[in-house]
Amino acid sequence: MDQRIINFLQNNEILSFAMQDRNEVYIANAFYIFDILHSSFIIASDKNTKHVKLSIINPCIAVNVYQGKKIALLKGVQIKAKFIDATKEQEKLYYHKFPFVKFQKDIKIYALCILWAKFTDNTLMLNQKIEFQRN
Question: Could you tell me the maximum CA-CA distance found in the chain, to the nearest angstrom?
């Protein structure tokens, strides 16, 4: 993964992710930690939420992370990811940054494994987007 994408993802902490089943689409927001080693976001959510239930039914999700209020300053990553259970190692990373989550009822840690990403950075005036494709 291009270092500019990694830097951007490491310097943010909130993502939006969208999921669907046969009849509906849904979107949610989450605090995340970026797991560089596995090119994944680590998030926490109540296992009984609609977005978790839909993501388990269809684990192919879309993710968006962005910053900027003016088009000339816009930076963002559009992502296709797979919603999976986090590993024990990823859980430890998440709890290290957000220790209070450990004590919340029905919370589970998940990983959003990046399959493809497209990075836009209007501050660089790039004509071409930077892409990542998992092998």
Answer: 47
